[in-house]
Specification:
four-stranded antiparallel beta sheet, RNA-binding, 2 domains, ATP binding, protein biosynthesis, alpha+beta, two-stranded antiparallel ribbon, 31% helix, single chain
């Protein structure tokens, strides 16, 4: 096993059948060795996991019409910026091109999953988060809510 820079951090492989028989191991036994020091050196700064919320998530969907040239990544960045820390997940679930949105335009439909760490979000709060996200995307990309 190698790190991306080529440093060897371990070896893993199937043991030879003679070794398996001599040690009375199950057939096709695999063994491995890791250089823990090399793994620790490769990790850099420790990653701190976010505290899990015990409050329920809420979902809301939004469809945005943008020019065909606008990348979905720009729309997603605006949604993330506008929603803030309560955004738990963002999923693009539909892309529509056709007469209903006009020539040279596309509709991107997203599901926003939001959750507050300290309370259950009310419907009004979820709607306000969505509206803030839409406003941020509109400012950044010229998107219009469908």
């Amino acid at each position: 096993m190698h790190r991306p820079d080529g440093t060897v951090v371990g070896h893993v492989g199937e043991l030879h059948p003679k070794v398996v028989t001599a040690l009375d191991l199950p057939p096709r036994t695999v063994a491995g060795e890791l250089d823990v020091d090399a793994l620790i050196a490769a990790t850099g700064e420790p990653v701190q996991a976010h505290r899990l919320s015990t409050y329920p998530q809420a979902t809301t969907d939004v469809a945005l019409v943008v020019e065909e040239s606008v990348p979905a990544a720009s729309v997603e960045a605006g949604l993330r910026d506008g929603t803030g820390d309560d955004l738990e997940a963002l999923v693009l679930f539909d892309v529509y091109r056709g007469g209903q949105v006009g020539e040279g335009r596309k509709s991107l439909a997203y599901r926003l999953v939001v959750r507050a760490p300290d309370r259950t979000l009310r419907t009004e709060e979820v709607n306000a988060l969505r509206d803030r996200a839409v406003a941020a995307v509109a400012e950044r990309t010229g998107a219009v809510q469908r």
